[in-house]
Amino acid sequence: MPGIRGLFIPGPTNVPQAVRLALDIAMEDQRAPDLPAFTLPLFEDLRKIFKTRDGQVFLFPSSGSGGWEAAMTNTLSPGDKVLIARFGQFSLLWADMCARHGLDVDVVDVPWGEGVPVEIFAEKLKADKTHAYKAVLVTHNETATGVVSDVAAVRHALNDAGHPALLFVDAVSSLASIDFRMDEWGVDVCVSGSQKGFMMPVGLAIVGVSQKALAARKAAGLRRSYFDFEDMIKTNKDGFFPYTPPTHMLRALRASIDLLLAEGLENVFARHYRLAEGVRRAVAAWGLSLCAKAPKWHSDTVSAIVIPEGFDSAALVKHAYNRYNLSLGVGLNKVAGRVFRIGHLGDLNEIMCMMALAGSEMAMRDLGIPVEAGSGVAAAEEYYRETGAAAALRKAA
Q1: I need a labelling partner for 93 at 20 to 30 A (CA). Which of 146, 220, 333, 334 fits?
Q2: Cα gap 343→327, rounded to integer Å
Q3: CA 137/CA 159 separation, integer angstroms
Q4: Cα dihedral sign for 260, 261, 263, 264?
Q5: What average pLDDT does this structure show over 21-47?
Q6: Average pLDDT of 363-379?
């Protein structure tokens, strides 16, 4: 089919031209004497994205799952107790990885469509007088259900209980898209990846680590090699890596950070909210609902949309792909067949969102899902027009 494919899965996301061009370079010497002039400022600017002054950022050639493994193996020991809520496919997988590493995993199961149950966490932390919990794990943005959780509230619960546990955050589908404040929220390890808000191909786990977590590595007993912070610390301080780095990805990361900082992080967050809200207006106009059960859970990077009973969301996604050249996200695990997902993060604007909504609308109507032609598109269009005009007036003033 002529034209471009509409890519609206919640990652990998669209790669902007500046990042694509940065990837297209000749191979370079990873031990060149002038490489630190490039890598050291890169590490410093990554701290701005995490909003940390004292934390250290590591870049592992890996997906975000490798970042999860790095977080655990560098700070914990076999048998350590950790607290995690399970409310979607990715929080489920993180809990499973903890168990595979021999940790004592206290899992709080939550309905899929809700987020981290802060009140339950607070009760458990206050009751833990011996401080058995060594880490609390929070999935900031659950990609499977389009649910965002309150990291700051979890930190407040830890502080209120006087609990010393480390705070780990999975920010794979939130960092560089949704407001994240590593220092202010007291996050000890934040795990992200290159393929979502950073607008790059898959291939880098981007991990922010506090000084408290760095100190914890000295007593950590879990085995590690490839993901060892110690090896990174020894070489990163001079601008190098303990093994051959993907230099083309580092160049792309430089281009990505430049785009984010040029737009301004607060503007990036506002743009994501505005584009996501347009999608939510469309969903309401279709007469459908989100998997996220309340506005406080609404994600600004992905919307999981519940379709009526009697219809199969997997068939809808397949039809959209084959008929309209449109890639949407399928439902995963417990919500398989029940939801389809529109990813609205990264290099994105109003017209691109309208493409996703129009294609989704046509695909639903083709399969007999009772939505009115143009209803969702019109609702989003009006919202984008009104809010865009207001933003233009503020800028002019």
Answers
A1: 220
A2: 10
A3: 15
A4: positive
A5: 97
A6: 98
- What CATH number is given for 6-12+265-396 in this structure? 3.90.1150.10
Q: How far, in Å, CA of 283 to CA of 379, rounded? A: 9
| Bridge-based pairing state of the strands 6-8 and 326-328 | parallel
At 56, list the tokens. Answer: 């250290």
Dihedral, CA of residue 98, residue 101, residue 104 and residue 107, to nearest 10: 20
Pull the structure tokens for residue 94. 């993180």
- Outline which parts of the chain fall under CATH 3.90.1150.10: 6-12+265-396
82 CB-near residues (< 8 Å, 6+ apart): 76, 98, 103, 104, 105, 106, 133, 134, 135, 136, 137
CATH 3.40.640.10 region(s) of the chain?
17-262
Residue type at 316 in one-letter notation = L
> Residue 33 above 90 pLDDT?
yes
Contact in structure between 336 and 258 (CB atoms under 8 Å):
no
What is the average per-residue pLDDT within 61-80?
Answer: 97
Residues ≥6 apart with Cβ < 8 Å to 293: 111, 113, 114
How much is the average pLDDT of 42-71?
97
Mean pLDDT of the chain: 96
What gap in Å lies between CA 125 and CA 236, rounded to an integer? 36
* CA–CA gap between residue 270 and residue 285 (Å, rounded): 23
**Residues 6 or more apart whose Cβ sits within 8 Å of residue 207:** 57, 58, 59, 60, 67, 70, 71, 189, 190, 191, 192
Residue 3 has pLDDT above 90, yes or no: no
Alpha helices in 34-141 (DSSP H): 36-50, 64-73, 89-100, 118-127
Structure tokens at 304: 């999981």
Pick the CATH number of 17-262 from 3.30.250.10, 2.40.50.140, 3.40.640.10, 3.40.50.300: 3.40.640.10
Please determine, for residue 179, whether its predicted confidence score (pLDDT) is greater than 80. Answer: yes
pLDDT tens digit sequence for 242-292: 999 999 999 999 999 999 999 999 999 999 999 999 999 999 999 999 999
